[in-house]
UniProtKB/TrEMBL annotation:
Keywords: Hydrolase, Metal-binding, Zinc. This is Cytidine deaminase. It catalyses: cytidine + H2O + H(+) = uridine + NH4(+); 2'-deoxycytidine + H2O + H(+) = 2'-deoxyuridine + NH4(+). SUPFAM superfamilies: Cytidine deaminase-like. It comes from Microvirga arsenatis.
């Protein structure tokens, strides 16, 4: 698997490409898959505000387009002093392709600030199993 340093650098590089002229808040996300690949995404805003998409959504779309479907770990890099944890919708997006213990690392420009598991950020979650075991 890719090292956490490599994943952090991928998140930093893609964050710089974010299209965020409205919020001026750039976010980058980088996913590592178990086979050592990295897929990255940035937020892409829109003049019709609700149509914009989050960095995590872009990274997940790239992963699926690349033929992968499991997140081994993910780094999310935001701006400012606060922890930029994935938004509620993105927690659910990550949940589709991750395990309860999958690490979600929240970073700032200086490095990883805090690491969570998916289960910590989205406990008692709804997922594919709910639909398959009926
Ligand atoms: N944003 C993300 O890309 N990921 C998150 O988890 C939190 C928020 C983006 C959406 C919007 O473009 C900007 O940050 C401000 O909310």
């Amino acid at each position: 698997m890719a090292s956490l340093d490599t994943l952090f650098e991928a998140a930093r590089a893609i964050q710089a490409k974010a299209y965020a002229p409205y919020s001026r808040f750039k976010v980058g996300a980088a996913i590592a898959t178990a086979d050592g690949r990295i897929f990255a995404g940035c937020n892409v805003e829109n003049a019709a505000y609700p149509v914009g998409s989050c960095a995590e959504a872009g990274a997940i779309a790239a992963m699926v387009a690349g033929g992968a479907s499991r997140i081994a770990e993910i780094v999310v890099m935001g701006e400012g002093e606060h922890l930029v944890t994935p938004c509620g919708g993105c927690r659910q997006r990550i949940r589709e392709f991750a395990a309860p213990e999958t690490p979600i690392h929240v970073a700032g420009p200086e490095g990883i600030r805090k690491s969570f598991t998916l289960d910590e950020l989205l406990p008692f979650s709804f997922g594919p199993d709910n639909l398959s075991d009926r």
